[in-house]
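Entry 14. Ran structure prediction on the chain below.
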Amino acid sequence: MSELGKRIRQARQARGVTGAQLADMIGVSANYISELERGIKKNPSMQVVSGMAEVLHYPVDYFFGVQEQRIRQFIPADLSGYVAESILRPYGARSHDLNELSDHEVMDALVEYLRQRKDKD
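Output, structure tokens:
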């Protein structure tokens, strides 16, 4: 499986969308999405990538790996466990392992944490 294929599958699964549903939403065949995810097809058009980004609520550059480490690189290693256990998981992240979460999931949980802190003050 290619890196692009892994990112497509991760984003799709994180949003609870099947390959067939994604294909229908962006106007391609389910087989094409499957081939992208398995690395058989490697160069989708920008129209396909932007359609996936819009439907799955991810930035286009996520699919090319540009964003993958951005948020995590700003969380010091000695605080990553605290952030994961005390902020991310209780405030909506599906996992407490920072390496399993997309930047989008980390940001959603951090925003929810900050909203609730603000409401308490």
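Helices lie at 3-14, 19-26, 30-38, 46-56, 77-88, 103-120. Will compare against last week's run tomorrow.
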